[in-house]
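Students often ask why inverse folding is considered easier than folding. One informal answer: many sequences map to the same fold, so there is more than one right answer. In these notes we will look at a single instance of the problem. The structure comes first.
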Protein backbone atom coordinates (compact mmCIF):
# COMPACT_ATOMS: atom_id res chain seq x y z
CA UNK A 1 0.00 0.00 0.00
CA UNK A 2 2.02 2.96 -1.24
CA UNK A 3 1.62 6.38 0.39
CA UNK A 4 0.11 7.94 -2.73
CA UNK A 5 -2.83 5.48 -2.67
CA UNK A 6 -3.35 5.30 1.08
CA UNK A 7 -6.76 6.82 1.87
CA UNK A 8 -8.65 6.96 5.15
CA UNK A 9 -12.29 8.01 5.44
CA UNK A 10 -13.91 9.42 8.57
CA UNK A 11 -17.56 9.89 9.48
CA UNK A 12 -18.29 13.38 10.84
CA UNK A 13 -20.97 13.53 13.59
CA UNK A 14 -19.80 11.90 16.83
CA UNK A 15 -16.67 10.59 15.10
CA UNK A 16 -14.75 13.79 14.34
CA UNK A 17 -17.05 16.36 15.95
CA UNK A 18 -19.56 16.50 18.78
CA UNK A 19 -22.40 18.27 17.04
CA UNK A 20 -25.11 17.40 19.56
CA UNK A 21 -25.50 20.82 21.25
CA UNK A 22 -25.96 22.60 17.93
CA UNK A 23 -28.26 19.97 16.43
CA UNK A 24 -30.42 20.00 19.58
CA UNK A 25 -30.65 23.79 19.34
CA UNK A 26 -31.73 23.56 15.70
CA UNK A 27 -34.47 21.05 16.53
CA UNK A 28 -35.63 23.34 19.33
CA UNK A 29 -35.84 26.19 16.81
CA UNK A 30 -37.74 23.97 14.38
CA UNK A 31 -40.18 23.11 17.17
CA UNK A 32 -40.70 26.78 17.92
CA UNK A 33 -41.32 27.57 14.25
CA UNK A 34 -43.67 24.66 13.51
CA UNK A 35 -45.42 24.17 16.82
CA UNK A 36 -44.52 20.46 16.73
CA UNK A 37 -42.64 19.37 19.83
CA UNK A 38 -39.43 17.54 18.89
CA UNK A 39 -37.59 15.91 21.77
CA UNK A 40 -34.17 17.31 20.82
CA UNK A 41 -32.33 15.30 23.47
CA UNK A 42 -33.77 12.09 22.06
CA UNK A 43 -32.98 13.17 18.51
CA UNK A 44 -29.31 13.79 19.23
CA UNK A 45 -29.00 10.49 21.09
CA UNK A 46 -29.32 8.62 17.79
CA UNK A 47 -27.28 10.67 15.32
CA UNK A 48 -26.12 8.88 12.22
CA UNK A 49 -28.97 8.32 9.76
CA UNK A 50 -29.97 11.02 7.27
CA UNK A 51 -31.87 14.08 8.44
CA UNK A 52 -34.95 12.95 6.53
CA UNK A 53 -35.14 9.86 8.70
CA UNK A 54 -35.19 11.82 11.97
CA UNK A 55 -37.65 14.37 10.62
CA UNK A 56 -39.97 11.53 9.57
CA UNK A 57 -40.19 10.37 13.17
CA UNK A 58 -41.79 13.67 14.20
CA UNK A 59 -43.65 14.95 11.16
CA UNK A 60 -46.04 13.38 8.62
CA UNK A 61 -44.39 12.38 5.30
CA UNK A 62 -45.87 15.26 3.33
CA UNK A 63 -44.27 17.78 5.72
CA UNK A 64 -40.79 16.23 5.84
CA UNK A 65 -39.34 18.10 2.80
CA UNK A 66 -40.38 21.49 4.22
CA UNK A 67 -39.09 20.60 7.69
CA UNK A 68 -35.76 19.51 6.24
CA UNK A 69 -35.51 22.79 4.31
CA UNK A 70 -36.31 24.79 7.46
CA UNK A 71 -33.78 22.80 9.51
CA UNK A 72 -31.06 23.37 6.96
CA UNK A 73 -31.78 27.09 6.71
CA UNK A 74 -31.29 27.44 10.48
CA UNK A 75 -28.32 25.09 10.75
CA UNK A 76 -25.30 27.22 9.74
CA UNK A 77 -25.94 30.04 12.20
CA UNK A 78 -27.09 27.90 15.13
CA UNK A 79 -25.19 24.61 14.92
CA UNK A 80 -21.78 25.07 13.36
CA UNK A 81 -20.24 27.26 16.05
CA UNK A 82 -21.63 25.06 18.82
CA UNK A 83 -19.79 21.91 17.69
CA UNK A 84 -16.53 20.77 19.23
CA UNK A 85 -13.85 18.30 18.24
CA UNK A 86 -14.10 14.76 19.53
CA UNK A 87 -11.11 13.50 21.54
CA UNK A 88 -8.22 12.66 19.25
CA UNK A 89 -9.90 13.85 16.04
CA UNK A 90 -7.24 16.34 14.97
CA UNK A 91 -4.47 13.93 15.98
CA UNK A 92 -6.06 11.10 13.98
CA UNK A 93 -6.09 13.19 10.83
CA UNK A 94 -2.53 14.34 11.47
CA UNK A 95 -1.46 10.70 11.84
CA UNK A 96 -2.86 9.83 8.41
CA UNK A 97 -0.99 12.76 6.89
CA UNK A 98 2.20 11.88 8.70
CA UNK A 99 2.13 8.52 6.93
CA UNK A 100 1.59 10.12 3.52
CA UNK A 101 -2.13 9.39 3.35
CA UNK A 102 -5.20 11.27 2.13
CA UNK A 103 -8.17 12.08 4.36
CA UNK A 104 -11.84 11.97 3.34
CA UNK A 105 -14.87 12.99 5.36
CA UNK A 106 -17.82 10.85 4.25
CA UNK A 107 -21.04 11.73 6.03
CA UNK A 108 -24.83 11.63 5.90
CA UNK A 109 -24.83 15.35 6.66
CA UNK A 110 -25.33 17.50 3.57
CA UNK A 111 -22.05 18.45 1.96
CA UNK A 112 -22.28 22.22 2.49
CA UNK A 113 -22.88 21.93 6.23
CA UNK A 114 -20.20 19.26 6.54
CA UNK A 115 -17.69 21.57 4.89
CA UNK A 116 -18.67 24.38 7.26
CA UNK A 117 -17.97 22.10 10.23
CA UNK A 118 -14.64 20.95 8.83
CA UNK A 119 -13.57 24.53 8.20
CA UNK A 120 -14.76 25.74 11.62
CA UNK A 121 -12.93 22.90 13.37
CA UNK A 122 -9.72 23.57 11.41
CA UNK A 123 -9.49 19.98 10.16
CA UNK A 124 -7.07 19.47 7.28
CA UNK A 125 -8.89 17.06 4.99
CA UNK A 126 -8.61 16.42 1.27
CA UNK A 127 -12.26 16.05 0.39
CA UNK A 128 -15.70 16.21 2.02
CA UNK A 129 -18.49 14.05 0.60
CA UNK A 130 -21.94 14.44 2.13
CA UNK A 131 -25.50 13.21 1.65
CA UNK A 132 -24.52 9.51 1.78
CA UNK A 133 -25.52 6.88 4.32
CA UNK A 134 -24.62 3.27 5.06
CA UNK A 135 -24.11 1.35 1.80
CA UNK A 136 -24.01 4.64 -0.12
CA UNK A 137 -20.88 5.49 1.87
CA UNK A 138 -19.43 2.23 0.65
CA UNK A 139 -19.77 3.29 -2.96
CA UNK A 140 -17.93 6.53 -2.21
CA UNK A 141 -15.19 4.69 -0.33
CA UNK A 142 -14.72 2.28 -3.20
CA UNK A 143 -14.52 5.09 -5.74
CA UNK A 144 -11.79 6.77 -3.69
CA UNK A 145 -9.97 3.49 -2.96
CA UNK A 146 -10.23 4.07 0.77
CA UNK A 147 -8.36 1.50 2.83
CA UNK A 148 -9.99 2.38 6.17
CA UNK A 149 -13.27 3.97 7.23
CA UNK A 150 -13.80 5.14 10.81
CA UNK A 151 -17.25 5.79 12.18
CA UNK A 152 -19.43 5.50 15.27
CA UNK A 153 -22.61 3.97 13.82
CA UNK A 154 -23.74 0.59 12.52
CA UNK A 155 -24.36 2.28 9.19
CA UNK A 156 -20.69 3.25 9.09
CA UNK A 157 -19.69 -0.37 9.56
CA UNK A 158 -21.98 -1.39 6.72
CA UNK A 159 -20.57 1.36 4.55
CA UNK A 160 -16.98 0.28 5.18
CA UNK A 161 -17.72 -3.33 4.42
CA UNK A 162 -19.64 -2.44 1.27
CA UNK A 163 -16.71 -0.32 0.12
CA UNK A 164 -14.09 -2.96 0.80
CA UNK A 165 -12.46 -0.82 3.50
CA UNK A 166 -11.38 -1.91 6.94
CA UNK A 167 -14.26 -1.03 9.27
CA UNK A 168 -12.97 0.85 12.30
CA UNK A 169 -15.62 1.59 14.91
CA UNK A 170 -15.29 4.27 17.56
CA UNK A 171 -17.60 3.93 20.54
CA UNK A 172 -18.20 7.66 20.85
CA UNK A 173 -21.69 7.77 19.37
CA UNK A 174 -24.98 6.03 20.07
CA UNK A 175 -23.76 2.47 19.45
CA UNK A 176 -21.84 0.56 22.17
CA UNK A 177 -18.55 -1.13 21.34
CA UNK A 178 -20.00 -4.64 21.55
CA UNK A 179 -22.70 -3.81 19.01
CA UNK A 180 -20.12 -2.35 16.62
CA UNK A 181 -18.13 -5.57 16.89
CA UNK A 182 -21.21 -7.73 16.42
CA UNK A 183 -22.06 -5.75 13.28
CA UNK A 184 -18.73 -6.66 11.74
CA UNK A 185 -16.34 -3.88 12.72
CA UNK A 186 -12.79 -5.12 12.18
CA UNK A 187 -11.44 -2.89 14.96
CA UNK A 188 -13.21 -0.97 17.72
CA UNK A 189 -11.56 1.88 19.64
CA UNK A 190 -12.92 3.75 22.63
CA UNK A 191 -12.28 7.00 20.77
CA UNK A 192 -9.91 8.46 18.19
CA UNK A 193 -7.25 9.24 20.78
CA UNK A 194 -5.88 5.73 20.25
CA UNK A 195 -6.10 5.95 16.46
CA UNK A 196 -2.52 7.18 15.77
CA UNK A 197 -1.06 4.26 17.72
CA UNK A 198 -3.37 1.77 16.07
CA UNK A 199 -2.62 3.20 12.63
CA UNK A 200 1.13 2.96 13.21
CA UNK A 201 0.86 -0.74 14.01
CA UNK A 202 -1.67 -1.43 11.27
CA UNK A 203 0.38 0.22 8.54
CA UNK A 204 3.56 -1.44 9.71
CA UNK A 205 1.96 -4.88 9.66
CA UNK A 206 0.37 -4.18 6.27
CA UNK A 207 3.61 -2.94 4.78
CA UNK A 208 5.55 -5.85 6.24
CA UNK A 209 3.10 -8.19 4.55
CA UNK A 210 3.36 -6.27 1.26
CA UNK A 211 7.16 -6.28 1.46
CA UNK A 212 7.27 -10.01 2.13
CA UNK A 213 5.04 -10.68 -0.86
CA UNK A 214 7.10 -8.43 -3.13
CA UNK A 215 10.38 -10.03 -2.14
CA UNK A 216 8.98 -13.54 -2.46
CA UNK A 217 7.84 -12.63 -5.96
CA UNK A 218 11.37 -11.62 -6.97
CA UNK A 219 12.62 -15.18 -6.69
CA UNK A 220 16.15 -14.15 -5.73
CA UNK A 221 17.93 -10.89 -5.02
CA UNK A 222 21.30 -9.21 -4.59
CA UNK A 223 20.92 -6.43 -2.03
CA UNK A 224 23.06 -3.32 -2.44
CA UNK A 225 24.08 -3.29 1.20
CA UNK A 226 25.67 -0.09 2.49
CA UNK A 227 25.44 -1.23 6.09
CA UNK A 228 22.90 1.46 6.98
CA UNK A 229 19.51 0.93 8.61
CA UNK A 230 17.52 0.82 5.35
CA UNK A 231 19.59 -1.69 3.41
CA UNK A 232 20.14 -3.79 6.55
CA UNK A 233 16.40 -4.08 7.07
CA UNK A 234 15.88 -4.89 3.40
CA UNK A 235 18.50 -7.62 3.59
CA UNK A 236 16.87 -9.14 6.68
CA UNK A 237 13.43 -8.97 5.04
CA UNK A 238 14.75 -10.65 1.90
CA UNK A 239 16.16 -13.51 3.95
CA UNK A 240 12.80 -13.95 5.68
CA UNK A 241 10.93 -13.99 2.39
CA UNK A 242 13.33 -16.01 0.23
CA UNK A 243 15.72 -17.84 2.51
CA UNK A 244 19.47 -17.10 2.73
CA UNK A 245 20.34 -19.32 -0.23
CA UNK A 246 18.46 -16.99 -2.62
CA UNK A 247 19.87 -13.76 -1.20
CA UNK A 248 23.29 -12.15 -1.22
CA UNK A 249 24.64 -8.83 0.04
CA UNK A 250 27.09 -6.60 -1.79
CA UNK A 251 28.91 -3.72 -0.13
CA UNK A 252 30.75 -1.62 -2.68
CA UNK A 253 34.29 -0.76 -1.65
CA UNK A 254 35.70 2.57 -2.82
CA UNK A 255 37.32 5.70 -1.36
CA UNK A 256 33.82 7.04 -0.57
CA UNK A 257 33.05 4.21 1.89
CA UNK A 258 34.28 4.92 5.43
CA UNK A 259 36.57 2.09 6.54
CA UNK A 260 34.63 1.75 9.79
CA UNK A 261 31.51 0.64 7.89
CA UNK A 262 32.91 -2.49 6.27
CA UNK A 263 33.43 -4.85 9.22
CA UNK A 264 29.97 -4.23 10.77
CA UNK A 265 28.39 -4.81 7.35
CA UNK A 266 30.26 -8.07 6.96
CA UNK A 267 29.24 -9.21 10.45
CA UNK A 268 25.59 -8.31 9.89
CA UNK A 269 25.43 -10.32 6.67
CA UNK A 270 27.13 -13.25 8.40
CA UNK A 271 24.51 -13.14 11.20
CA UNK A 272 21.79 -13.61 8.58
CA UNK A 273 23.59 -16.48 6.91
CA UNK A 274 23.99 -14.75 3.54
CA UNK A 275 27.05 -14.39 1.36
CA UNK A 276 28.66 -10.99 1.65
CA UNK A 277 30.51 -9.65 -1.37
CA UNK A 278 32.73 -6.59 -1.52
CA UNK A 279 33.10 -5.59 -5.16
CA UNK A 280 35.22 -2.55 -5.92
CA UNK A 281 33.56 0.34 -7.66
CA UNK A 282 35.41 3.08 -9.52
CA UNK A 283 33.03 6.02 -9.49
CA UNK A 284 36.11 8.26 -9.49
CA UNK A 285 36.64 7.27 -13.13
CA UNK A 286 33.36 8.96 -14.07
CA UNK A 287 33.72 12.62 -15.02
CA UNK A 288 30.29 13.49 -13.67
CA UNK A 289 31.14 12.06 -10.28
CA UNK A 290 34.46 13.86 -9.97
CA UNK A 291 32.93 17.14 -11.15
CA UNK A 292 30.59 16.97 -8.13
CA UNK A 293 27.72 18.97 -9.55
CA UNK A 294 24.24 18.50 -8.11
CA UNK A 295 23.82 15.22 -9.99
CA UNK A 296 26.90 13.53 -8.49
CA UNK A 297 24.78 10.79 -6.92
CA UNK A 298 23.51 9.81 -10.36
CA UNK A 299 27.00 8.75 -11.47
CA UNK A 300 27.75 7.02 -8.18
CA UNK A 301 24.59 4.92 -8.32
CA UNK A 302 25.09 4.21 -12.00
CA UNK A 303 28.54 2.82 -11.22
CA UNK A 304 27.20 0.74 -8.35
CA UNK A 305 24.38 -0.92 -10.28
CA UNK A 306 26.55 -1.53 -13.34
CA UNK A 307 29.13 -3.27 -11.16
CA UNK A 308 26.51 -5.31 -9.30
CA UNK A 309 24.82 -6.46 -12.49
CA UNK A 310 27.53 -8.91 -13.57
CA UNK A 311 27.94 -10.05 -9.96
CA UNK A 312 24.24 -10.86 -9.66
CA UNK A 313 24.36 -12.70 -12.97
CA UNK A 314 27.36 -14.74 -11.86
CA UNK A 315 25.61 -15.64 -8.60
CA UNK A 316 22.43 -16.60 -10.43
CA UNK A 317 20.37 -13.89 -8.72
CA UNK A 318 17.61 -12.34 -10.78
CA UNK A 319 17.29 -8.86 -9.25
CA UNK A 320 19.34 -6.07 -7.69
CA UNK A 321 17.58 -4.25 -4.86
CA UNK A 322 18.46 -0.95 -3.19
CA UNK A 323 17.34 0.32 0.22
CA UNK A 324 15.49 3.34 -1.15
CA UNK A 325 12.46 4.03 1.04
CA UNK A 326 9.24 6.00 0.58
CA UNK A 327 10.64 9.12 2.29
CA UNK A 328 13.60 9.11 -0.09
CA UNK A 329 11.23 9.04 -3.04
CA UNK A 330 9.29 12.03 -1.68
CA UNK A 331 12.37 14.09 -0.88
CA UNK A 332 12.44 15.55 -4.39
CA UNK A 333 16.26 15.51 -4.72
CA UNK A 334 17.44 11.98 -5.44
CA UNK A 335 19.26 11.70 -8.79
CA UNK A 336 20.68 8.38 -7.60
CA UNK A 337 17.20 6.86 -7.49
CA UNK A 338 16.75 7.72 -11.14
CA UNK A 339 20.08 6.17 -12.10
CA UNK A 340 19.28 2.90 -10.32
CA UNK A 341 15.79 2.73 -11.83
CA UNK A 342 17.16 3.27 -15.34
CA UNK A 343 19.41 0.26 -14.81
CA UNK A 344 16.65 -2.03 -13.59
CA UNK A 345 17.24 -2.00 -9.84
CA UNK A 346 14.16 -2.62 -7.71
CA UNK A 347 13.13 -0.69 -4.59
CA UNK A 348 11.01 -3.01 -2.40
CA UNK A 349 10.92 -0.68 0.62
CA UNK A 350 9.73 2.22 -1.47
CA UNK A 351 7.17 0.10 -3.29
CA UNK A 352 5.75 -1.22 0.00
CA UNK A 353 5.50 2.35 1.33
CA UNK A 354 8.08 2.03 4.13
CA UNK A 355 9.07 5.33 5.73
CA UNK A 356 12.39 5.82 7.51
CA UNK A 357 10.58 5.69 10.84
CA UNK A 358 8.88 2.42 9.95
CA UNK A 359 12.15 0.88 8.81
CA UNK A 360 13.63 1.61 12.23
CA UNK A 361 10.56 0.42 14.14
CA UNK A 362 10.38 -2.85 12.19
CA UNK A 363 14.12 -3.32 12.67
CA UNK A 364 13.69 -2.78 16.41
CA UNK A 365 10.92 -5.36 16.57
CA UNK A 366 13.07 -7.84 14.70
CA UNK A 367 16.01 -7.21 17.01
CA UNK A 368 18.30 -5.89 14.28
CA UNK A 369 21.32 -4.03 15.70
CA UNK A 370 20.97 -1.38 12.99
CA UNK A 371 17.53 -0.17 14.18
CA UNK A 372 18.98 2.94 15.84
CA UNK A 373 22.12 3.32 13.78
CA UNK A 374 22.73 6.97 12.86
CA UNK A 375 22.48 7.92 9.21
CA UNK A 376 25.81 7.32 7.47
CA UNK A 377 25.88 8.78 3.97
CA UNK A 378 28.94 8.26 1.78
CA UNK A 379 31.97 10.47 2.30
CA UNK A 380 31.36 12.29 -0.98
CA UNK A 381 28.22 13.82 0.52
CA UNK A 382 30.53 15.87 2.77
CA UNK A 383 32.15 17.67 -0.19
CA UNK A 384 30.49 20.93 -1.24
CA UNK A 385 29.06 20.82 -4.76
CA UNK A 386 31.44 22.36 -7.26
CA UNK A 387 34.57 21.09 -5.49
CA UNK A 388 36.16 18.18 -7.30
CA UNK A 389 35.93 14.80 -5.61
CA UNK A 390 39.40 13.37 -5.06
CA UNK A 391 40.69 10.49 -2.94
CA UNK A 392 42.68 13.03 -0.90
CA UNK A 393 39.56 15.08 -0.08
CA UNK A 394 37.64 11.97 0.94
CA UNK A 395 40.49 10.73 3.10
CA UNK A 396 40.81 14.15 4.78
CA UNK A 397 37.11 14.17 5.67
CA UNK A 398 37.21 10.63 7.03
CA UNK A 399 40.31 11.38 9.12
CA UNK A 400 38.70 14.52 10.51
CA UNK A 401 35.50 12.69 11.48
CA UNK A 402 37.42 9.87 13.18
CA UNK A 403 39.40 12.44 15.17
CA UNK A 404 36.27 14.41 16.03
CA UNK A 405 34.49 11.30 17.31
CA UNK A 406 37.46 10.47 19.51
CA UNK A 407 37.58 13.97 21.00
CA UNK A 408 33.87 14.06 21.83
CA UNK A 409 33.94 10.55 23.26
CA UNK A 410 36.97 11.33 25.46
CA UNK A 411 35.28 14.52 26.67
CA UNK A 412 32.10 12.66 27.56
CA UNK A 413 30.08 14.82 25.20
CA UNK A 414 26.93 12.97 24.11
CA UNK A 415 26.35 12.86 20.36
CA UNK A 416 24.50 10.77 17.81
CA UNK A 417 25.27 12.46 14.50
CA UNK A 418 28.28 14.35 13.32
CA UNK A 419 29.69 15.46 9.99
CA UNK A 420 32.75 17.29 8.78
CA UNK A 421 31.78 19.13 5.60
CA UNK A 422 34.51 20.15 3.16
CA UNK A 423 33.58 23.60 1.84
CA UNK A 424 37.02 24.36 0.42
CA UNK A 425 39.97 24.96 2.67
CA UNK A 426 37.50 25.27 5.54
CA UNK A 427 35.81 22.43 7.40
CA UNK A 428 32.25 22.95 8.61
CA UNK A 429 31.57 20.83 11.68
CA UNK A 430 28.02 19.62 12.24
CA UNK A 431 26.87 17.96 15.46
CA UNK A 432 23.46 17.34 17.00
CA UNK A 433 21.72 20.69 17.60
CA UNK A 434 21.41 20.15 21.35
CA UNK A 435 25.20 20.00 21.81
CA UNK A 436 26.22 22.70 19.29
CA UNK A 437 26.93 25.32 21.97
CA UNK A 438 28.93 22.88 24.05
CA UNK A 439 31.02 21.68 21.11
CA UNK A 440 31.57 25.22 19.83
CA UNK A 441 33.35 26.04 23.09
CA UNK A 442 35.82 23.14 22.85
CA UNK A 443 39.14 24.22 21.34
CA UNK A 444 40.23 20.60 20.94
CA UNK A 445 37.41 20.03 18.46
CA UNK A 446 38.79 22.55 15.99
CA UNK A 447 42.34 21.38 16.61
CA UNK A 448 41.42 17.76 15.80
CA UNK A 449 39.84 18.75 12.51
CA UNK A 450 42.69 21.05 11.52
CA UNK A 451 45.13 18.19 12.14
CA UNK A 452 43.43 16.29 9.32
CA UNK A 453 44.67 18.89 6.83
CA UNK A 454 42.10 21.71 6.78
CA UNK A 455 43.26 25.33 6.95
CA UNK A 456 40.27 26.43 9.03
CA UNK A 457 37.33 24.88 10.85
CA UNK A 458 34.06 26.16 12.28
CA UNK A 459 31.09 24.67 14.10
CA UNK A 460 27.85 25.11 12.16
CA UNK A 461 25.36 26.86 14.51
CA UNK A 462 22.43 25.11 12.80
CA UNK A 463 23.72 21.70 13.80
CA UNK A 464 23.53 18.43 11.89
CA UNK A 465 20.91 17.94 9.20
CA UNK A 466 20.82 15.39 6.41
CA UNK A 467 21.33 16.80 2.94
CA UNK A 468 22.90 20.01 4.23
CA UNK A 469 24.96 20.41 1.06
CA UNK A 470 21.77 20.60 -1.00
CA UNK A 471 21.07 23.93 0.67
CA UNK A 472 23.96 25.41 -1.32
CA UNK A 473 22.54 24.44 -4.72
CA UNK A 474 20.99 27.39 -6.58
CA UNK A 475 18.49 25.18 -8.44
CA UNK A 476 18.10 21.66 -6.96
CA UNK A 477 15.10 20.90 -9.18
CA UNK A 478 17.24 20.60 -12.30
CA UNK A 479 19.02 17.57 -10.83
CA UNK A 480 15.98 15.54 -9.85
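Output (designed amino acids):
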Amino acid sequence: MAPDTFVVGFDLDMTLIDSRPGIAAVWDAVSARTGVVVDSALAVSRLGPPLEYEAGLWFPPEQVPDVVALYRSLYPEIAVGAASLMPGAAEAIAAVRRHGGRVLVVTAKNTDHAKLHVEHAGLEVDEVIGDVWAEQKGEVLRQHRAAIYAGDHLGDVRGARTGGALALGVATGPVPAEELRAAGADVVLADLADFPYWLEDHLLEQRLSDLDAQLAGLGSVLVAFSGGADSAFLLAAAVRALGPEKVAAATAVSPSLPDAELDPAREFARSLGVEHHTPHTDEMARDGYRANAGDRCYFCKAELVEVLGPLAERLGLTHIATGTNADDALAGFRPGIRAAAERGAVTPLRDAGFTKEQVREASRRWGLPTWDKPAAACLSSRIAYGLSITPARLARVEQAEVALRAVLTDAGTPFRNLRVRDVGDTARIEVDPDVVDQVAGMEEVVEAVLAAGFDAAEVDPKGFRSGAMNELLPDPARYR
